Structures are given as C-alpha cells and as structure tokens.
Amino acid sequence: MAKKNNKEEMAPQKLFYIFYSKERWDNWLNSLSDLDFDGTNEDEMPEGYRALNSFMEDITIAVLKVVRLYQNNRFSKEEAAGRLRDIEEIVMAELPEGRLGEIILSVQLSLRVLFVSSQKYLEGSFDKDIKSLVKKGRKQVEEDPEGALDTAAQIGAGVIDGATCCDKFLKDDAGTLFDEWLMEIETMRDDFKSLKNFDEAPGEEF
C-alpha cells in the first residue's frame, strides 16, 4: 500500500512526446482525397471508408495516449488537458472543400465524444450507470444534442475508468448521432485496452 501511495505522490515527469500534429492531419487528408468513397462492389466497403476508419482510430489512439500517460503520472491534470486541447484544435479545424469536407464533418461530429469524454475523465466527475445513461442519451439526442453529448461523454469517461460499454447497447437499425458516439466509445474501449502497457520515458524527444 505504501508503494502505491508513493507512486501517486510522484511529481509528473517532463515528456516531449508529440501526440498529433497538423502535418499528420494534412497527410491523412491528402491521402483520403485520392480515395474512392463510392465503391463498385456492394459487398465490399469502399477503400475511402476503410481508410477513414483507420484515420479516426489514429486520432483516438493519440488522444488516449495522453490519458494513459496522465494515469501513469507523466502529466499533471493541467498538462494532460492542454495536450488534449492541442489535438482537438487540429481535428476540429476548418473543413476542406467539397465532398471530403462533408466526410470530415461527420468525423468531427463523431469524435466530439472522444474529446469531451477525455476531459470529463480528467475532471473526475461523471456517472458510471451506463444502462441509465444510454437510455437518457437516446431520449435527449433529438431535442437536446448537446445534453446527449454530455451524457455520452459520461459513458466515455466511465469506459476510460473501467466501465463496460457499448456493444450490447448498439442496435442494427439505430442511426442517430448518439449511436455514432456509442460506436466511437466502443472503439475507445478497445484502443485503451491496447494501450495497457503504453508509457514513455521522461526526457526523450520524439
């Protein structure tokens, strides 16, 4: 027990890790702009959407690395919040023109829950009654989308904190924005598990 307390009391250690950059974002957009989002085979997902899934997961992992390092006492709460804002500013920037802009807008809408969930987790104030939150969010989404986002973010923060969600709450015929947020939270759950042993040594530049 004493060892755990000592770990919790350690001062955050300086890291120079670059989690996400404007150059990385632009490279993804350039790649996506050259891909087919229509497809010719109804049984296969178009290459553009396959790449888009990887694009979104790349952002999700970058954000969750910040959270994991906060958990590992590499960042203070304020430093972690600042790193998250840096990534959010890149992802929520001005949209490209044309159809790609419409596609990226859908990405931004889905990923809002990632950023709000992570910030809410850092703040430490959230409900973990997932079943009740899902029920509440489904009722809110049409009339109060911002309230539904807050509800979804509480679910996301709970998942970061170890709660289980969201595959059993997803419906095949559901297509609301709240359901998109639940799908993103499910991705967060899987990606956060993959970062179980993630850490970085202090003082290294990347």
Keywords:
206 residues, 64% helix, globular
Largest sheet: none
**What's the shape?**
globular
Count of alpha and pi helical runs: 8
Unreliable sequence segments: 1-9
How much β-strand is present in the residues?
under 5%
Brief sketch in words of this structure:
With 206 residues, this protein is mainly α.
What does this structure look like?
- The chain has 206 residues and is an all-alpha fold.
- The protein has one domain (15-194).
- The protein has eight helices and no strands.
- Helix 5 crosses helix 8 (177-194).
- The two termini are 34 Å apart.
- Mean pLDDT is 87; it is low at 1-9.
Question: How does the SSE layout of this entry go?
Answer:
Layout: H1 2-9, H2 22-33, H3 47-71, H4 77-91, H5 98-123, H6 130-140, H7 145-160, H8 177-194
Helix pairs in contact: 3-4, 3-5, 3-8, 4-5, 5-7, 5-8, 6-7, 7-8
